[in-house]
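Our preliminary data section would be incomplete without showing what the modeling component actually yields. Below, a chain of 145 amino acids is followed by its predicted structure, encoded as C-alpha cells that our downstream tools consume directly.
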Amino acid sequence: MKLLLDLDALVKTLTDKGYDGYFHTESYCPGKLKDSISGFLQTWENGTNAPSSPNYLHLSTYLEWNGEERPKVECNMRVRYENGKFDLGDTEMYLKRTDRYGHLMKESKLTNLTASSVPTIKEAIAQVSEKPNEEIAPRKKGFRM
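Predicted structure:
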C-alpha cells in the first residue's frame, strides 16, 4: 500500500528529518521547501513551466555549506508526484560532496525510500563525509637529562 502525502504532510515529514533549509524545485523556484514546491506547482498549473521528467519533481538543496572556500554537501531528490499527492515510496536521493572547486569528493545514491527511511540530515551528511583520521600526537623532541 502506498502512502500518498499532500504538500503539508511532505513538508512536515522532511522538516522533521532536518531538511529545513532553502530548496530549488526543478531548478526554478528558490525558497523554503513549502514555498518552493507550491511556487513551482503554481507555475505548472499556469502552463509556464513543467517538470523535466513526468510524474516526478526534482528538489535540490545544500545540506552543508560553509562558504565558497570550503567543501559542501548537496542533496538532490526525485519525488513522485501524481494527482496532487506525493509518494515518498518511489523517492531517489542523490548526495554529493564536492570541494571548493566543484570536484567530486564522494557521492551516494539512495533509492526506494519511504517516509520513515529518509535519512536525517546528519545521517545524510555522514554518508558522504570522510571519517576523520586519528592523529598520532607528535613526540616531543627536546633535550633530556
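The first strand starts at residue 4 and ends at 5. The beta strands are 4-5, 22-25, 29-32, 56-64, 72-82, 85-98, 104-113. Preliminary results of this kind motivate Aim 1 of the renewal.
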